[in-house]
Design goal:
One of its GO terms (biological process) is defense response. One of its GO terms (molecular function) is superoxide-generating NAD(P)H oxidase activity. Pfam families: NAD_binding_6 (PF08030). The chain is an alpha/beta fold. It has one domain: Rossmann fold (3-Layer(aba) Sandwich). It is about 40% helix and about 20% strand. A three-stranded parallel β-sheet has the order 1-4-5, covered by helices on one side. The protein has a two-stranded antiparallel sheet with strand order 2-3.
Length: about 140
């Protein structure tokens, strides 16, 4: 019943959001998805957000370490890919889902062994346009 929803989960507490995000993907596809042909998606609607009250979802997930993100990433990647394909064909539309990932392990930031990885992240991520930890376009903080 809201225009903007913020979903916040920490660690395995994010589990209920798997079904919510799966449902949102199904609604997204059902509103305009026609078929997939050789990794190209065809859409029938010009506006996913036209006929629905919910216009924006911010998904925020906090984890202690990067490994905990792995089990949920395939779902997030699918949604991100669907949304990017749709937005490429409809540049006037706004993003429906924004993903915000946070790694909270304090040892990770202060560990000298992680300095080369952090350097690679700062250099390669902008070029690849993907987060090196998750492979998503959304950056892990």
């Amino acid at each position: 019943d809201s225009k903007h929803v913020v979903l916040i989960g920490a660690g395995i507490g994010v589990t209920p959001y798997a079904s919510i995000l799966s449902s949102l993907i199904a609604q997204f596809r059902g509103s305009h998805f026609v078929r997939r042909n050789n990794s190209h998606v065809y859409y029938i609607s010009d506006g996913f957000n036209e006929n629905r009250k919910l216009q924006k979802v911010d998904f925020i997930w906090l984890n202690r370490d990067f490994e905990n993100f792995e089990w949920f990433l395939s779902l997030l990647r699918r949604f991100e890919q669907e949304q990017e394909s749709y937005l490429a064909l409809h540049p006037n539309e706004k993003r429906f889902l924004d993903i915000h990932l946070y790694c909270t392990d304090p040892q990770l930031a202060s560990n000298v062994d992680n300095a080369p990885l952090e350097l690679v992240r700062k250099i390669c991520a902008p070029v690849a346009r993907r987060d090196i930890y998750t492979g998503l376009k959304s950056r892990t903080n």
